[in-house]
Design a protein that fits this description.
about 400 residues; disordered N terminus; globular; 13 strands; alpha/beta; six-stranded parallel beta sheet; seven-stranded parallel beta sheet; about 15% strand
């Protein structure tokens, strides 16, 4: 028995911080679930200094009640590519030191850079390599404009990382992907067997994102200064080209001609950026329709009930095959239906399967108009029924069960 128990040691490597918003909403809940069946789970993460120094003590105290041990490194913001290379070297050194001490049977990497580290740990210490692939990261950088392939230096980086990606994919003992849609692609890129793949979409904490009620709706609208009788569209998340805020505003403009009570609530960490977009892309007479709030995770859960229908428009692309928007899981947990576009991971299939809203062609004004005409009908798709159907596929408990099965499989 002692010998069997001693094998339940694992190392988790992430370049995202546990103290980042993503850390609180996605990484920590999964880590706690994994730790519940591990004797020792050691986490290596990179933390932003402005979040780490005020909050590290509280997180250490929280983790002290679990089997999780935490080694945080400070994220390097300077020096561009050299800064990232420096972080990768530090990650390699720290991971090897930890692995030499705890001898993990599983090394679990979240995304591509940590996967390079995990592969080295596998080769040096014989650990099983679990790659938590958060999407087609190399091509996502092109989508986001971080690499412009017409630039020779960017093109060289792209080619190098595609070569590294193929090595990583070919060496996995198991891989987690976010969507069914990306499975043929990762098999083409080198994963040797579909049996080594498990789909775990971005899930929501259904305890944190409670069903929106008339009372929570009234409170949220009051705090956001939105008239209670309004029909409210929601925008949730960052501002960037791939999230198509200009198309959201176009949709809002079209819908405003059909619904006199229409308002929009924008919950975003990029408040000023969105305000500037409103100034540029929206008629001045309609500016009062848009309520913009900077919101952390707790505030999102508090204010999202003000929304009748969430609008989630994401630029379709090759890389988007691997995307699973967390905002949709959070909205559906609260019983809020969504207007989504096709060409993004499994979104279209989920909307149909869960009866969770409507799918449109994001580039079609006629589709935007049809969606605007159906807004009142869409509001009836939500509430308790939507939350119940989403719970079976998009709750943290579902994700935790799948991670447990993977760890058990890797130790057979």
């Amino acid at each position: 028995m002692r010998q069997k128990m001693s094998k339940r040691r694992s190392l988790f490597v992430t370049y995202d911080g546990l103290l980042d918003p993503l850390g609180g909403s996605q990484i920590l809940p999964y880590l706690k679930a994994i730790a519940s069946h591990e004797d020792h789970l050691h986490v290596l993460s990179f933390e932003k200094p402005e979040r780490y120094f005020p909050a590290a003590g509280a997180l250490r105290e929280e983790l002290s009640c679990t089997t999780i041990r935490w080694t945080p490194l400070i994220f390097t913001r300077r020096w561009d590519v050299l800064g990232k290379a420096w972080d990768l070297l530090r990650m390699l050194f720290a991971a090897c030191c930890i692995a030499a001490r705890i001898q993990p049977s599983v090394v679990h990497a979240r995304s591509h850079a940590p996967a390079q580290v995990a592969l080295l740990v596998k080769w040096l210490f014989g650990s099983r390599f679990l790659f938590d692939c958060r999407g087609l990261w190399v091509d996502e950088r092109v989508d986001k404009g971080l690499w412009v392939l017409a630039n020779p230096w960017h093109c060289l980086q792209y080619r190098i990382y595609k070569w590294i990606e193929r090595i990583l994919f070919s060496q996995v003992d198991h891989m987690v992907v976010l969507t069914q849609a990306v499975i043929p692609e990762v098999l083409r890129l080198g994963v040797p067997d579909s049996q080594k793949l498990t789909v775990i979409p971005c899930c929501a904490d259904f305890h944190h994102f409670q069903l929106a009620t008339p009372q929570s709706r009234q409170l949220a609208r009051s705090e956001c200064n939105i008239p209670e009788a309004s029909l409210v569209l929601g925008y949730l998340g960052s501002v960037g080209g791939m999230y198509m805020p200009e198309r959201f505003l176009r949709f809002l403009k079209l819908a405003s001609t059909r619904h006199a009570s229409l308002q929009a609530l924008v919950l975003t960490p990029d408040k000023e950026k969105f305000r500037q977009l409103v100034q540029v892309h929206f008629p001045p007479s309609l500016h009062p329709l848009v309520y913009i709030r900077a919101a952390n995770r707790d505030q999102v859960a508090r204010w999202l009930p003000a929304v009748d229908v969430l609008v989630s428009l994401i630029q379709p692309s090759y890389a988007r095959k691997g995307s699973s928007p967390t905002k949709l899981a959070e909205a559906w947990a609260m019983g809020i239906p969504a207007i989504c576009n096709s060409g993004v991971g499994d979104v279209a299939a989920l909307v149909v399967e869960l009866d969770a809203g409507v799918v449109i062609d994001v580039d079609s004004d006629s589709d935007l108009i049809a969606a605007a005409d159906s807004l009142l009908f869409l509001t009836k798709k939500g509430r308790a029924h939507l939350r119940k159907t989403a719970l079976a596929q998009l709750s943290l408990d579902v994700a935790s069960e799948r991670y447990l099965k993977i760890y058990q499989l890797l130790r057979l």
